[in-house]
Every structure is written in structure tokens, then in C-alpha cells.
Amino acid sequence: MRALYFDGTLQYRPDAPDPTPPPGEALIRTRLIGICNTDLEIVRGYLGFEGILGHEFVGVVARADDAPELVGQRVVGEINAYCGQCPTCRRGDPTHCPHRTTLGIYRRDGTMADYFTLPTNLLYPVPAAIPDEWAVFTEPLAAACEITDRVHVRPTDRVVVLGDGKLGLLVAQVLQLTGCDLLAVGRHPEKLAILERRGIRTQIAGEKIEPGADVVVEATGSPDGFAAARALVRPRGTLVLKSTFHGDVTLALSAVVVDEVTIVGSRCGPFSPALRLLEQQLVDVEPLIHEAFSLADGLTAFERAAAPGVLKVLLSTD
Amino acid sequence: MRALYFDGTLQYRPDAPDPTPPPGEALIRTRLIGICNTDLEIVRGYLGFEGILGHEFVGVVARADDAPELVGQRVVGEINAYCGQCPTCRRGDPTHCPHRTTLGIYRRDGTMADYFTLPTNLLYPVPAAIPDEWAVFTEPLAAACEITDRVHVRPTDRVVVLGDGKLGLLVAQVLQLTGCDLLAVGRHPEKLAILERRGIRTQIAGEKIEPGADVVVEATGSPDGFAAARALVRPRGTLVLKSTFHGDVTLALSAVVVDEVTIVGSRCGPFSPALRLLEQQLVDVEPLIHEAFSLADGLTAFERAAAPGVLKVLLSTD
User: Fold this and answer.
1) Chain B interface includes A150 (CB < 8 A)
2) What is the pTM (predicted TM-score) of this model?
3) Domain-by-domain residue ranges, chain B?
4) Average pLDDT, stretch B66-76?
5) Burial status of residue B281 (CB atoms within 10 A of its CB: 0-12, 13-18, 19 or more)
């Protein structure tokens, strides 16, 4: 099969071996794959991963010995394969299972191939009303839903989202649905325009923002974003961290204590609400698509995805 | 009246002018005052305060034109005098009122004097069963109660308290009452022994601690404590910051996001539960008293309070 493989350098392999699903796992025929910032970080060598890249996908189940009812179904899937037995799994945090493998990120081949395997209990059938081009956004949209899953964002809250990258645009759309007083801040007028068209108030980074927000979401992917977010949150407010850039930030601890600020780290999220939001067209992912490439043109696609100002680049197995 | 005054240097003034309570405030005859780490920080020049020091107290109301029923009552009191009118006050966070004055800390003379004034709505009558020597701990005990007021500490949680100073010892006693699996860590065997006598498991800092705690409270007052606390908290766990030392710490932001850790700053707390815990003898503050001095010996008392290993030093107006 065709695959994009990374072992220090990114390679297109036209004749990678087909995977065989172990017990409990399904074989999935990939249809569309999204390139995520995490994929770009892996290619830059930050995460030490070796194998087939990719974790955002929509595909069709080709084989599932333990769950034959899934065969032929169009699916998306969670990316953390957990043990289900350890204390972390038992207390309901399987995405933090210390024994987990993560699709295309950690000890598990990913989705940038004609086929891959994933435990059947991680798969979600995609409603017919959701086209492939939307379904492939389920995973990052779930990450946006993780914010409201972990933090009670009230309709009376004033909320600021910093960052107009792919994740920031999804986060802003999800938070808009709470009815909160929302401001999205970014560096790219053309990206902010996607939110403006949905009635979300936006502002170019660097302009003055009124401080004292109840909730601030940091999704800039830059260390500067943290200081900006910290300065905007009110006493007893909540600062949500979504950026996973590498490097440290400086925290004035005493001020966090005096202001009694809550800082919440947030990453992978729940798939079912993301699928509901897509099916009910409460978020719009289509303007986030920059371009689609064939899997065989994967190296070009990665270059495009890494270029400044580019939103989502897709890979197709067609 | 006698007073301990700070204007860059700490002075004992035998003939400071008696204060006159403005409308809405009571005149309080001080009985006992506690010296807090914040007082020591002020004397080191960190907070830019000028005036009469002190915020921990028990006293008797000498005059209260707006609330005559308080006259003659023994009281403790909250330390933040708020406006009651601004958005912060109206949403229920008066301790963060941007117009607030803070007793002996910010734009308001404090309690290290024969008399001081405080708004009557900040005063709490002290039940007869609580002697002065316990009542004077109400304010720091309230700060310990703020943890369980802001964070849901479950009886099934594994909790680690770092720091065996005055606040750490109060925090450990309050958290013990949740029924949680508690470990208190400090540098002073004689202080940890206070907790051991109450059945709290303790450990000397530097010995190996099992990571993966559900809740970690950082009360060491040292920047090193932050890194230690961060390393102990489990994914999706909560790190409570109580230390208000000056200086920055370094935060590996990506790991906070990946582990979805929550960091909660916490300072002043609710007085009513603190008084209930004292009255019902569910915490024991008496072993925390190191020594009591007369107000006239205030300078010596401050030297003693700043010495290594010393717990609570009290000042008496007797």
C-alpha cells in the first residue's frame, strides 16, 4: 500500500506492507486524512516518532473480526489506544493511560496510508449527512469540545480566544455556541474573516483588548500567547491552555495565587459531541480547508501545510 | 495608643494617634495579633506598604455606630474591605474588588496596635468555646479552607501537601478532614511531628514520593516547591498554589496541556467554616504557637518570627 513514513526524514513509500489487525482491532480503508500541527512537529523531529504519520482521518471499515457490524461503515476514530485495565483507565481517564499508544504519534502507525488499524471501541460511525471533508475534522473539533467538557463556560461569561490557526478557529466556533460574549484574536485578517462571517467579533493581535475576561483560551502556538492570555484573565478567571509548542514559559506564581486564577491544560476531546455539531451544522469546517492532495503527493502537501498562513491541508487516497 | 508602624523601617510607636472609625466601620480593641509571612515580606520591603502592620487578630468591638449590637463582642474579621458596588463585588468576588483596601497590607492601617477600624460587615463574633489563642488563627485557617472551597477534594483522592510552615500545617489538617489519602512533606521533623500526632502521614522533603497524586498543594514558599509539586500531580490532576513568594517559576507549558493538569491559585478564604472547625476542635492550632510577646516588644517579636524553623509568633496588647 501507499504510505507516508517518517524515520528522521519524511518519505513517500509506494509499496509499504499492508497492516494486519490484531485481535480487537479493525482494518480501515482510509479516505481522507488531515495534516495537523502535531504532524508538522513530528517531521521537525520534536516527538521522536518513527512510523507511518497521521491521526486525523475518515475511512471505511474493511475488516473487524470482533465487530463485524462495523464492516463497510464509514468511521472516524479516537487516537489513544488504551489498556482499559490500569488505575488511570479505571477512573475514566483512558486518554491518559500510561500504557497507551497514539495513532501516528506514539508507538502506533498512523493514517497517512491506504490502510491502518485501530481498536474497534475507538471507532465512531459517521452520520450520512456529514461529508468526508467535514468528518475529517472530527478529531480537532473534539479537541475544541474538550474545553467545554472540562471548564464550565457560562453564557454570561466574557471569553477571549487567542490564535486564529486551525484549532483557534474551531475553538471560537464551539465557544460561540455557549452564548458567551466572545472575542477572537489573531494575526491573519483572512482567517478572522471566517469567524466574522459567523457573527463572531474579532480583533487583530496587538490592538488593545479589555482585560478582565472570565475565560481566556490560549491557542496561538507561541510562548508569547501565554503572557498575553495571562494578562487578560480576571481574578478567579480561567486560563485554558491548548497550545502544545515546545519550550518553557515564565509564570509569576505570586500573581496567580493573589488573583486566584485557574489554569487548565486541555488536549484530546470527546468525539460524539463533535459529530453532533458537524451533523447539525452548528460549526462550519469547510472554510478551513486550504487544499487537498493525493497521498502520493504527500511531501508537497507537508510543505504546503507548513507554509505561513495555510490552514488545513488534506490528503486523499482517491 | 501603641502601634507597630512601617515606612521602610519597622518602628514601635508608643503614642500613635487613636483611629476614628468612618461610617460603616467599627473601632476594635485588639487582644491578640499573629505575625504572618506576609508581614515579614512587608518588612523586607516587598509590598510597598506604609502604615500600621498586621491583619491576623482577635479583639473586642469598642464602638460600632451602625451596628451597636456588636459592641462588647469578641470578634475576628476578614481583611479585604471592598466597595460592594463594582462588577467584581456584584458577581460575588469581593475579596478581589479592584477598589479594595486590605488590613495592614494595602492602603489600610492594620491590627498591630491597641485599636484599629474595620467595616462591621467583615466582623465575625467568636464563639465562647474558642479561646483568643485559637481565634487569632481564624484568618490563616480560612485561607486553608479556601482550598476545599475552590477545589473538590474527594475522600478517594490521594493528596500531597508540600511545606510544613504555618500555612502548610493548617492546610494538611483541613485536608485530612476530607478522608483523603494524605501525605504531608516538609523539611522540619519537629513540625511534621505536629501532624503525625494527629495521624497524618508525613515525609521529609527529598525522600522519594510516589507521583500520580490527584491533588498537590504547594505551600513551601519556595520556587523549588512548584517544580516538585508539578512532578507529583497526575494527568488531569489539580495543583493548588498557596505560596506567595516573589519571583517567577518556569512552566513547561506543553506538558501541562498534554497532561491536562489544572493549576489553581488560592489565597484568602471563608471565615465561618474556619470558626466552626476551631469551635468543634477539628483542627488544632495550639502547637503552632511558638511564643507570645507584648506589643511593646514588637521589634523582637518580628526578629523571632523571621528566624528559621519558627512557627507562629503572637503579639499581645495585655
Assistant:
1) yes
2) 0.87
3) 3-136+284-316, 144-265
4) 97
5) exposed
